[in-house]
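JOB MANIFEST
job_type = single_chain_structure
chain_count = 1
residues = 348
[input]
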Amino acid sequence: MSKKYNVAVIGYGWAATAHIAAINATSNAQVTAVWSSRPLDSEELSRKHGSTITAYTDIAAMLASPDVHVVDITSYPNQHAGQFIAAAKNGKHIIVEKPLAIEWSEILAMKKAADESGVKVCVCFECRWSSQFLATKSAIDQGLVGSLHYGEIDYYHGIGPWYGQYRWNTKKELGGSALLTAGCHALDALLLCFGSEVEEVTSYATQSAHPIFTAYEYQTSATTLLRFKNGAVGKSAAIVDCFQPYYFHTHLVGSEGSILDNKFHSQKIGGLNKHAWSTLSMKMLDSGDVSDHPYQTQFQAFFDALEGGQHMPLTSFADAFATHRVIAAADKSAAEKRTVKISEIATA
């Protein structure tokens, strides 16, 4: 049965295959077009993904098609801006993988295109839609740990030759920084949990001496200290040159208790053992594999928002813009070896 939104996917790699499955699993959208720099066969794509898909070699023709309602951008990060702007000018709503772009000037141009066209945008900071952070944010919002004054959310994921992204991720023009390429998920989660604007940022970057990671053209370990406007302090590490299992470390400290990964302690609940943690029932983020990410939950929320004429909850362009602005400040801080005020990063 035909669904309400026809989606055209730009790029046909690792992320695209996960996106297509998630989009087709929603109740109101289906993938009907794919553009790739490689020749693709429409019949083969249709058989593989269970929807009628037209393979395009002309991206402009695909974007101009009146049968396309939404464009999903899964290409290399340094291609996002041009493709995003072209889609917006064609009046298409947009799903775009993180990072939005490598250069801040490109992100500003994307913001201008989105604002002028009025299209709705879903940015793939999908960890906000994970069981871990839906549960964590709910616990915070319900006052379980009181008012947060300190927190740290860190990303540990060694991206070496064993991981498909390594092939292009070592290039600065494609990876950008430890924060842009992957650690942005942890920083974004920290901003979600605190819900306060950032005032200033201090960031330090370094790099592993192991030959696998010296191939990177940018520093692959960074730690960023944040001071929020409400006086709270946070820290986010982005470590993509480690040898260890994937780990999304979370420790949030509030006036009435703390959350540590999937555990909590709260003064708000009587009878708890003060010398032991209690457990929050959640599925922890434990893999960087796109097939394990909560895309279907996120995309369903996006298409439901489109039907209601609303902006995407949690991961709108505005949400992602705020996160990327902090990343821009952090990367500037690490490069210039100084504290950077968020006001130094232009918004237009």
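[summary]
The domain at 5-119 is CATH 3.40.50.720 (Rossmann fold).
The chain has a mean pLDDT of 97.
exit_status = 0
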